[in-house]
Every structure is written in C-alpha cells, then in structure tokens.
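Q: Predict the bound structure with calcium ion.
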Amino acid sequence: MPGPDSVCPSYLGATGELLSPPSTGFEEPGSWTTLTAKPCSSTVANASTGNACSGSAFLTCNGAVRQAPWDGPVMTATPNFIQGHTYAVTAALRYSPESAPTTASPLAITCIRICNGGATDYSSIGSVAYSTYEWVRISGEVTASLAGCSALSEFRFYVNTVAKQETYDSVDMDDFRIYDLTAGKGVSSPTHHY
Ligand SMILES: [Ca+2]
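A: Predicted complex:
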C-alpha cells in the first residue's frame, strides 16, 4: 500500500556532468514555475504530506488550480544548456493526496525547444502508464538542437498529465536532475542566456 514509506525509485540511466542549477531536490524555495504561473511550492515531508523521494522536502503543484493537463511544474534549463549537447533528464513524480486512485492519468515529462524565438517543439521525454500516490521515476534523453535551427532560444521541461484530474491532480515532484552527456564541454561554442 502506498504510504509515507514508499521507496524512491533509483535513476538507472546515463550520467554525465550534473547541471546544477536547474537540478534540484526542492529542499528549499527555488526557480520553478508553471506554464500558467499557478503556484507550486516546496513542501516539507511529514505524516500528512507524505514522504520526500529524496531529502526532506519536495515540490508540489496544487491540483485545484492547475488549468489544464499541461499545467505542471516547469524547469528552465535555458540559462544552463549548451547548444547541440545531449542531456539526460530524470525526475520522480506522483499524485497527491494519498487517495489518488490507481487509474489516475499517466504523468509525463515534456521538453520544450524553441528555435530562435520562433517555432516551438514539444517532445516527450518519457511517461508512465499509471501514476498514483506512489513515487514513479520518469527519465529520458534529449539533444539541445532542432533540425534546420541554428540555435535554440529556450530549453525547458514540464510535467504534464494526459487528462486533467479534477479531484486528485496535485503533482508532486522530487529529485529532478539534468546531466550533460556530451564530452568535451569546454570545446564547443556555447550560447548561454545569462
Ligand atoms: Ca527532495
């Protein structure tokens, strides 16, 4: 039965240089937002809020104010990425409250890549078939480039649900990490957006 002792799923994918920020365990207030500026907050783990996947706190985005299936936590890697590099992305996700049914909508992580302020590409990093109060981990890899595009102007990740769950769609997130998998990082010509 899911509960405060649920296990944090390990990340088993490729690792490289950790991008930190935006990688975070949500142990303190940070730089996340949502696509509609609705509130997410760092939540201290306790008997009523549930366990943190890692550490003692996690991010929760209130289901009562989420505007649509795509309205979830957004992590912006735009100030941190290098054009053309490939990144591994991983995060632990769950629904809350604990009473979320086992038929809750799948959760997914989507990458937003915008070419020079123009065309926007949405690519799924990964998803799980069902998500409930139990922590699940979604991981995937994505390259910071688009065919025919000289440079990306935005490189972001957001969590979405396939359907908007009306009564149990608070989305919890923890242990969010981005790894730069491309060797020779100092040799390329980065376009940073500081
Ligand atoms: Ca944490």
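A: The pocket of calcium ion is lined by residues 25-27, 52, 54-55, 57-58, 174 (CB under 6 Å).
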